[in-house]
Specification:
The complex is a heterodimer. By secondary structure, chain A is mostly helical. In chain A, about 75% of the residues lie in helices and about 0% in strands. Chain B is mainly α. In chain B, about 80% of the residues lie in helices and about 0% in strands. The chains are: A mainly alpha, B mainly alpha.
Chain lengths: ~160, ~425
């Protein structure tokens, strides 16, 4: 990355989210112990940034093939079956995330039209926190796609 | 019918090599949909499964570990231990064990510790005549301590599932972790003596030891800062984790000057990804567990265990064997989510203390991670030395026997786990 190549958007977002979480939480620890003043709203912000960061990070994890799974039996299958399973597994993962997004968008729609709920500490509309999930899911779908291509290529490499 | 559906979907997907998080999520969603349990909550439940303050300790501890790793502190610590005990018989093996114990407590991940310490010490060990499989097995096994010694991600997860104080769990893990560590050093020494693995030729002079100590003091202090804060009740584990992040950053940037600000993005991304891999399992395991509890699987499974086991000791031993078996094929987090919800009512039925049981549960999982045939740490070690898992696994046997002995001692003597948390006022059984 230091080779002068520009840093990818999802890397920037994941890094900024995690750094912000750490900074906000750290400032709160300092203010609690040194000036005995705890900023209650910080917890709400950090845990919601955590949700967003997890979505972005999940995409990168899929792309890097870092998700944990049981490979004991998988490795016993013939290469051709393995390729089918890789695609099958990718479709399931994407399908699961699509469902999460559909119901999240539904929830956001309900908030905008019906409930108008606001968050406990900051009083901002909760749909803003929700919106990060479908938004950043774009990276998950891209990650699954790229990760799957890489795994298929690796299996092809073994075959030849 | 419900039970059959959810468990068969999960098991089939696992066997087919689908990522655990996906398998748990799909099994949960299919069951929720099939029995009309409220699929429209999926989106919001996904977010609320992550948005928890105690779980926030996970990305922070991971980040602190990544920073210390990138700063090259593992090598500094290894050098210090090498000067201290390297001359003794089996010196390098003991150095490896001590570095793993120390590093593992900081990094909180078994495979990561195996990789970090293995990269530094495997080559020198092999050069000094150690059998490479023995060297790999030593590091793989010592690394499994990382999930017993605080700060440990496994304990954060256990606390999240059982609603037990994570601070109490962290402190409870100290004596069992040190005990297992001492046992591992002993085994490394005994095997080395039997095989004639000699120590290093030159001994560190007092001056050299002092210099190495001064060089590694900041790293050696990290667990003191983290654990001291938790033990004295000043910090919650999440706060301790964020303090650990900035402590590591301060040490790495200003004291060792080994990382530059431009490395930051790299480290933040790596930590975000590692933490997301864990959270991807956590969030769908939460949905899976919720589903199993709604359709009554958990109650029935708990009743079954209570009816089979005649008393608490037998129950604990039976579950220990189950954990050792599962630990060979699955990671600690997934196993915790699959088993602990069932065990909570069982613990209550037998009047077993949940903090004490947490230590036993996590220790048994740790042993599983380094147990033949397929513990994850063994795989990492085998990869590093370019050998097959079987030969590393064979060398791991003496360590596993010792681990099991310690596990039995911990199962018989709750006081070893509970003394410190009670003394610190963090827990009252």
């Amino acid at each position: 990355m230091r080779s002068g190549k520009p840093i990818r958007a999802d890397y920037w977002i994941a890094a900024v989210l995690l750094m912000s979480m750490a900074l906000i939480a750290f400032v709160n620890v300092l203010s609690r112990y040194f000036i005995h003043f705890s900023i209650g709203a910080t917890e709400e912000i950090t845990i919601n940034l955590f949700v967003w960061m997890t979505v972005v990070g999940t995409g990168i994890a899929f792309e890097r093939g870092a998700q944990l799974g049981m490979v004991t039996f998988f490795n016993l299958f013939p290469l051709k079956v393995r390729k089918t399973l890789v695609v099958f597994s990718a479709l399931l993962g994407a399908g699961l995330l699509i469902l999460v997004c559909i119901y999240m968008i539904q929830a956001i729609y309900d908030e905008l039209t019906l409930f108008h709920a606001t968050s406990a500490a900051l009083g901002i509309p909760v749909w803003i926190y929700y919106a990060g999930v479908p938004l950043f899911s774009v990276f998950v779908f891209r990650g699954i796609y790229r990760g799957t291509l890489a795994r298929l290529a690796a299996i092809d490499g073994k075959a030849s | 019918m419900e039970v059959l559906l959810i468990s068969s979907v999960f098991l089939v997907l696992m066997v087919l090599g689908v990522p655990i998080g996906t398998a748990l999520g799909v099994a949960g969603v299919v069951t929720i949909y099939q029995f009309d349990l409220g699929i429209e909550m999926l989106g919001v439940n996904f977010a609320s499964g992550i948005a928890s303050f105690p779980l926030l300790a996970i990305p922070f501890f991971v980040l602190a570990g990544v920073i210390l790793d990138r700063a090259g502190l593992a090598a500094t610590i290894a050098r210090f231990f090498e000067l201290l005990v390297g001359k003794s018989t089996g010196g390098l093996a003991m150095v490896a064990v001590m570095t793993c114990i120390f590093w593992g407590s900081l990094s909180g991940s078994g495979p990561a510790t195996t990789a970090a310490v293995g990269m530094i010490l495997l080559a020198p060990m092999i050069k000094h005549g150690y059998d490479k499989s023995f060297a790999g097995a030593t590091i793989a096994n010592a690394s499994d301590l990382s999930i017993i010694l605080p700060p440990s991600i496994a304990f954060i997860i256990y606390g999240n599932i059982t609603s037990v104080s994570v601070s109490a769990l962290f402190v409870a893990g100290i004596i069992p972790g040190v005990l297992t560590g001492a046992g591992t050093v002993l085994v490394a020494y005994l095997v080395s003596r039997k095989r004639g693995y000699r120590g290093l030729a030159q001994r560190g002079s007092t001056m050299e030891i002092w210099q190495a100590f001064r060089k590694s003091i900041w790293a050696l202090l990290a667990p003191v800062v983290i654990l001291g804060g938790i033990y004295s009740g000043i910090f919650t584990p999440t706060e301790a984790a964020v303090v650990a992040v900035f402590y590591s950053l301060f040490v790495a940037v200003f004291i060792y000057r080994s990382i530059h600000w431009r490395d930051m993005i790299d480290m933040l991304v790596d930590a975000a990804v590692t933490s997301s891999v864990i959270m991807f399992i956590v969030v769908f395991a939460g949905i899976f567990t919720w589903t199993t509890s709604v359709i009554g699987v958990i109650d029935r499974a708990a009743e079954l265990i209570v009816s089979i086991a005649p008393n608490a000791i037998v129950m604990i031993i039976l579950i220990d064997f189950l954990l050792l078996a599962l630990g060979m094929v699955l990671d600690a987090i997934s196993i915790s989510y699959l088993l602990m919800p069932i065990l909570i009512p069982v613990l209550e039925a037998f009047g077993i203390d949940p903090v004490w049981y947490g230590v036993i549960f996590i220790s048994a999982l740790a042993v599983g991670q380094a147990t033949p045939p397929v513990g994850v740490n063994l795989f990492t070690a085998a990869n590093l030395i370019g050998s097959d898992v079987d030969s590393v696994a064979k060398e791991a046997i003496p360590y596993v026997v010792m681990d099991v002995v310690v596990l039995i001692i911990l199962s018989l003597l709750p006081i070893l786990s509970l003394y410190l948390p009670i003394k610190a006022g963090l827990y009252a059984p």
